Amino acid sequence: MKRSERIVSMSAQTAAQPARPEAVARLSELEIEAIELFINFLKLIGLPKSVGEIYGLLFVSPQPLAMDDLMQRLQISLGAASQGLRLLRSFGAVKVVYVPGDRRDHYLADLDLSNFATVFIKEELHPRMERALDRIARMEALSSDLNAADRKSAHVRIERLKHWLEKGQTMLPWILKFLVR
Question: What are phi and psi of 98, to 5 degrees?
Answer without folding.
Answer: -85, 135
